[in-house]
Amino acid sequence: MRILYGVQGTGNGHLSRARVMAKALKAQNVEVDFFFSGREVSHYFDMQCFGQYRAQAGLTFATHNGSVNIAKTAIQNSLMALYKDVRSLDLSGYDLVLNDFEPVSAWAAKSQGVPSVGVSHQAALQYDVPKVGNGWFNQMLLNYFAPVDVALGCHWHHFDCPILPPFVELNDDPVSYHPHDILVYLPFESAEAINQLLHSFDGYRFHVFHGSPAPANCSANIRWSGFSREKFKAMLAHCGGVISGAGFELASEALFLGKKLLVKPLRGQFEQLSNVAALELLGAADCMMSLDVYTVKRWLKVPRPAAINYPQVGDALVTWLKQGQWHTADKLCEQLWQQVDLPENWRKKSP
Question: How far apart are the first and last CA of the chain?
């Protein structure tokens, strides 16, 4: 079997899931080529596990001060360029396109008649899971942004739907708990706003990962660094809690490692707002809709949660893909959830 794996490059969550799958595919000797879109090629990092991958512009969202900027998004994205990218992607020789919400490879598969299987958190939002702001535009986006023949969603809870548990990457770093060390990943917020939020908590060390340089007046209780995947993973294993955006993959890793979580969603982003709804329903995280010092102060006193033993979904998924019965995913989902010991207060939750 030869697979083209299309991955949405906007944000790091899709890339984290692709890294899990890259290891699982390699372990089972599946031939795979990776294709990325949604980010400038020079902005990808720590990509060694993907080999000689390809990347194109694709589509992405533009943000400003913690919100989706619709006008800028429209200006930055060219449907004509997308059409050209789709036409130029030759899928001859591939048996399957595996897709993580990536539009170029999805539409190329559709136009060239190549079978496609989607694996993404977005696909879970097609089911009766917690959602916020699911208007016609968001539904059109889910249906047509990256259309596939079979769509497998993943979520923190099954919500009595045929979806997968999260894809969580096993960490080589020993897991420990240091309540006064807090990992902070707020990539859509300004450096100055983050510094202003955290500077008054003298008894804590905030380890901030951000694409911008540290502000000139950076507080002494803040350790500021650019994004290093190895350093980030080590701090995630070590810290007492995580302050982050409301993306899916980092929250999944925090739940898996037993780290308390405070999320601030990207305003106007349907997926992140829906993630907040799910986390609050489950009692799995605290939320702030804006950077709020008082919310942080309360959250820092929250006790440590129990870790959730999500299984290695990637290994099971690759085995299922090799069998070729791609329209029979319900049994796979059921088998994987049987391996999860959900917290007692989660077990009867429904959207």
Answer: 38
Are 248 and 274 in contact by the 8 Å Cβ rule? The answer is no
Q: Among the listed ranges 78-87, 150-159, 203-212, 330-339, which one has the minimum average pLDDT value? A: 78-87
Tokens of residue 235, six digits: 């701090």
> What count of Cα atoms within 13 Å lies in the side-chain half-sphere of residue 126?
20
Tell me whether residue 220 is exposed, middle or buried, using C-beta atoms within 10 angstroms of its C-beta: 0 to 12, 13 to 18, 19 or more.
exposed
pLDDT at residue 44 in the model: 80
Q: Is there a contact between 304 and 177 (Cβ–Cβ < 8 Å)?
A: yes
> What was the pLDDT predicted at 321?
96
Q: Residue 139's Cα: distance from chain center in Å?
A: 19
Contacts of 77 (CB under 8 A, 6+ apart): 59, 60
Given a contact cutoff of 8 angstroms between Cβ atoms, the answer to whether 257 and 166 are in contact is: no
277 vs 262: CA distance, rounded Å:
13
Give the predicted TM-score (pTM) of the model.
0.90
Identify which of 156, 206, 244, 188 has the alpha carbon closest to the alpha carbon of residue 65.
188
Rg (C-alpha) for the chain, rounded Å, is 20
Q: Which token pair is 327?
A: 């329209």
Tokens 């009766």 appear where?
128
Contacts of 334 (CB under 8 A, 6+ apart): 162
- pLDDT tens profile 266-324: 888 889 999 999 999 999 999 999 999 999 999 999 999 999 999 999 999 999 999 99
DSSP 8-25: E-SSSHHHHHHHHHHHHH
| Predicted local confidence at residue 67, as pLDDT | 47
CA angle (63 as vertex; 127, 148 as ends), nearest 5? 35
